[in-house]
C-alpha cells in the first residue's frame, strides 16, 4: 500500500508543480492566444493532480481531503521529478520543459491505461486525451522554434542543453516503480523511455535540434530530494493554509 | 439610366435611419468617421481592460488556497483573455490591426479600465474583483449587447454569459470568507473597503462631465448613461453585501422609500488622478505589458517566419 500511495504522489506532484510554473507565466506569454493555451494546460494539470490527491486521501483514510495532501506536505514529501520545478527562464525553457514532460506524460499514460488499478486506468484514459493535445502543441512549438529565426533556434537549443540532464529521472525505476510494475498496477518505465526517446528524436529531426551528448544526470525529486526551487514554490503555494490553518476556503 | 452616388448627408441619413430602426451596422457598411473613431476607442479600451485585468488576478493564482479555487481563478483569467481576443477581433473589423492597438496602449494613446490600477492585496480581493468589478462591468455590458455595431454587440452577448458566472464566483468567495474565521472576515471587509469606490468609478464621470456620451447615445453605441448604470449597480449590490454581513464603506448610505439608496459622491479628484496615470499601479501594469510584449518579440518573429508547419 505504501508504494501504491507514493506512486499516486509521483503522478500528481509532477502535474501540480508543473501547473504552478505555468500559472506563474499567466499574462506573460508572447501573445494572447499563447497565454490562453498556457493557462489551459495549467488547468488540465491541476485537474489531474486534484483527482489523484482526492483518491489518495480516500485510500489513506486519515480524515484528510485532496487539498490537505497538496497543501500540508513538506518539501521532502513531494515526489515530482526535478525537471518540472525548473524556473520559467524564457519561452524556450518553458516550451522545452513542456515538450519533455508532455512526451513523458503521453507515453506514461498510454501504458497506464492497462493498469490493474481501476483508478489509475481510468485516470490514464481521461488524461491521455488531454496530454495528446498538450504534446501536439509543444511538438509544434519545437518545430516552429527550430525552423524559425536563428535566435529562436539558438535559445531553444540552449534550453535543451540545460534541461536535458533532468530528463533521465522520469525513467529511473525506484522501488515504488518496480513494485507497481511487477503487480500490474504501474508501467514498465523502460518501454515508456524507448517511446519517449523516439518521439523526441522525431521532433528534433524535424526541428533540427541536437540531443546533447552528455550522460550527466540530475535526480532526486522522486525521492523527495529537490532543487532549491521547490522550497520557494511551496512557500508561495501553501502560504495561506500555513498562515491560517483553521480557515476553510 | 445614370445612377448618382449618394451625398455624405444622404449616407448619414440612411445610417441614422438604420440605427433608429434597431438594425445593426456591419463592418462594410458606410459609417461616419466619428462613429468609427468612437468605436475604435471604446472597443479597444474594452479589449485592453480585459487583458490588463489578467494581471491583478494572475498575481494570486500561485497563492490560491485550495485546488478548487486555483482552478476557478485560472479559468476566470482565461475567460478574460478570451474576451480580450473577441474584442480585439471586433475592433479589427474597423480597419485597425491588433498590433496597432497594442502600440497605442504602450504609447499611452489608448486607455484601459482604471480599476485595474488598484492593487490586489489579499485573497478576498479575488472575491471582490469578481463580485464588484465584474459586477459593475456586467451592469454596463448587458446594455452593450444591444449596441448598434454588430461585431461589438455579438461579442458582448458571449462575454456577458461568462461575466455573470464570474460575478457569482466572486460573491461565493466573499460569502465563504464571511462564514469563516475572524481573519477571513476581516480580509473580506478590507477587500470591500478598497474595491467599492473604484468599482463605482468604473461607470465613468457624471453624465454632464462625460465627453463621449452624447453622440454615443444618439448612435446607440451606448444605450444607458453612466449615472443610470451606476445607480442600478449600487441598488443591486448593497443588499448583497448586507446579506453576508459586509458593510459598504459609505457612512451616507440610506435606503429610500422607492428601494434605491442615498449615498455619498465619488472622490472625483482621485478618479481623474488615476485616469491620468497617477494611480497606485498604473506604471506597474503598463510596464508589465510592455516588458512581456518586448520579451515575446523573438517568439512572434520566429512563429511568423516558420509559418503554419506544413
Structural write-up:
The complex is a heterodimer of chains A (249) and B (310). Chain A has 249 residues and is mainly alpha-helical. Chain A has one domain (2-243): Ferritin (Up-down Bundle). Chain A has ten helices and no strands. Chain A has helices at residues 2-24, 32-60, 66-71, 91-112, 118-146, 150-163, 175-182, 189-207, 229-237, 239-243. Chain B is an all-alpha fold. Chain B is 66% helix and 1% strand. Chain B contains 13 helices and two strands. Chain B has helices at residues 8-20, 33-52, 54-61, 67-92, 98-106, 124-144, 150-178, 182-201, 213-218, 226-243, 268-278, 282-295, 297-306; strands at 254-255, 261-262. Chain B has a two-stranded antiparallel ribbon. The longest helix of chain B has 29 residues, at 150-178. At the A-B interface, helix 1, helix 2, helix 3, helix 5 and helix 6 of A face helix 3, helix 4, helix 12 and helix 13 of B.
Q: What is the compact description of this entry?
A:
Chain A is an all-alpha fold. Chain A is 66% helix and 0% strand.
* Main sheet specs of chain A: none
Main sheet record of chain B: 2 strands, antiparallel
Q: What are the low-pLDDT stretches of chain B, counting only 5+ consecutive residues below 50?
A: none
Distance between the termini of chain B: 52 Å
Structural class of chain B: mainly alpha
SSE pattern of chain A? HHHHHHHHHH
Elements of chain B, N to C (H/E):
HHHHHHHHHHEEHHH
Tell me the name of the CATH homologous superfamily of chain B.
Ferritin, core subunit, four-helix bundle
Mean pLDDT of chain B: 94
Q: Provide the CATH topology of chain B.
A: Ferritin
CATH superfamily of chain A: Ferritin, core subunit, four-helix bundle
Overall structural domain count of chain A: 1
The CATH topology annotation of chain A reads as Ferritin
Shape call of chain A: globular
- What is the structural class of chain A? mainly alpha
Please tell me what the overall shape of chain B is. Answer: globular
Amino acid at each position: 500500500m505504501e508504494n501504491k500511495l507514493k506512486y499516486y504522489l509521483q503522478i500528481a506532484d509532477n502535474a501540480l508543480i508543473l501547473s504552478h510554473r505555468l500559472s506563474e507565466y499567466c499574462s506573460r506569454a508572447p501573445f494572447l492566444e499563447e497565454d490562453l493555451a498556457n493557462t489551459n494546460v495549467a488547468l488540465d494539470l491541476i485537474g489531474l493532480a486534484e483527482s489523484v490527491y482526492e483518491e489518495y486521501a480516500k485510500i489513506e483514510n486519515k480524515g484528510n481531503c485532496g487539498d490537505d495532501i497538496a497543501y500540508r506536505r513538506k518539501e521532502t514529501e513531494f515526489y515530482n521529478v526535478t525537471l518540472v520545478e525548473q524556473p520559467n527562464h524564457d519561452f524556450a525553457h518553458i516550451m522545452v520543459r513542456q515538450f519533455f514532460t508532455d512526451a513523458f506524460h503521453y507515453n506514461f499514460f498510454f501504458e497506464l491505461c492497462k493498469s490493474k488499478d481501476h483508478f489509475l486506468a481510468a485516470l490514464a484514459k481521461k488524461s491521455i486525451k488531454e496530454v495528446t493535445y498538450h504534446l501536439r502543441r509543444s511538438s509544434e512549438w519545437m518545430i516552429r522554434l527550430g525552423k524559425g529565426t536563428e535566435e529562436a533556434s539558438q535559445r531553444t537549443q540552449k534550453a535543451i542543453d540545460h534541461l536535458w540532464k533532468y530528463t533521465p529521472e522520469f525513467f529511473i525505476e525506484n522501488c515504488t516503480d518496480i513494485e507497481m510494475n511487477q503487480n500490474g498496477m504501474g508501467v514498465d518505465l523502460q518501454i515508456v523511455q524507448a517511446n519517449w526517446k523516439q518521439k523526441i528524436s522525431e521532433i528534433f529531426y524535424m526541428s533540427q535540434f541536437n540531443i546533447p551528448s552528455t550522460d550527466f544526470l540530475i535526480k532526486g525529486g522522486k525521492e523527495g530530494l529537490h532543487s532549491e526551487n521547490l522550497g520557494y514554490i511551496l512557500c508561495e503555494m501553501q502560504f495561506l493554509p500555513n498562515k491560517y490553518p483553521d480557515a476553510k476556503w | 439610366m445614370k445612377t448618382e452616388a449618394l451625398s455624405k448627408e444622404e449616407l448619414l441619413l440612411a445610417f441614422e435611419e438604420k440605427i433608429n430602426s434597431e438594425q445593426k451596422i456591419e463592418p462594410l457598411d458606410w459609417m461616419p468617421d466619428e462613429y468609427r473613431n468612437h468605436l475604435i476607442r471604446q472597443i479597444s479600451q474594452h479589449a485592453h481592460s480585459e487583458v490588463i485585468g489578467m494581471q491583478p488576478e494572475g498575481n494570486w493564482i500561485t497563492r490560491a488556497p485550495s485546488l478548487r479555487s486555483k482552478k476557478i481563478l485560472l479559468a476566470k483569467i482565461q475567460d478574460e483573455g478570451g474576451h480580450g481576443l473577441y474584442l480585439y477581433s471586433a475592433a479589427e473589423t474597423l480597419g485597425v490591426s491588433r498590433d496597432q492597438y497594442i502600440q497605442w496602449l504602450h504609447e499611452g494613446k489608448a486607455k484601459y479600465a482604471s480599476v485595474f490600477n488598484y492593487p490586489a492585496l489579499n485573497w478576498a480581493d479575488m472575491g471582490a474583483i469578481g463580485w464588484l468589478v465584474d459586477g459593475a462591468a456586467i451592469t454596463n455590458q448587458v446594455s452593450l449587447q444591444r449596441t448598434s455595431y454588430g461585431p461589438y454587440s455579438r461579442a458582448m452577448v458571449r462575454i456577458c454569459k461568462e461575466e455573470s458566472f464570474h460575478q457569482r464566483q466572486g460573491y461565493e468567495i466573499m460569502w465563504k470568507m464571511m462564514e469563516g474565521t475572524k481573519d477571513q472576515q476581516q480580509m473580506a471587509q478590507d477587500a470591500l473597503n478598497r474595491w467599492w469606490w473604484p468599482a463605482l468609478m468604473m461607470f465613468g464621470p457624471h453624465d454632464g462631465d462625460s465627453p463621449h456620451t452624447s453622440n454615443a447615445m444618439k448612435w446607440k453605441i451606448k444605450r444607458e448613461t453612466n449615472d443610470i448604470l451606476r445607480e442600478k449597480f449600487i441598488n443591486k449590490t448593497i443588499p448583497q453585501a448586507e446579506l453576508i454581513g459586509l458593510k459598504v464603506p459609505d457612512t451616507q448610505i440610506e435606503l429610500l422609500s422607492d428601494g434605491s439608496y442615498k449615498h455619498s459622491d465619488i472622490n472625483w479628484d482621485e478618479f481623474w488622478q488615476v485616469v491620468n496615470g497617477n494611480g497606485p499601479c498604473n506604471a506597474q501594469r503598463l510596464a508589465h505589458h510592455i516588458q512581456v510584449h518586448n520579451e515575446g518579440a523573438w517568439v512572434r518573429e520566429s512563429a511568423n517566419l516558420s509559418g503554419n508547419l506544413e
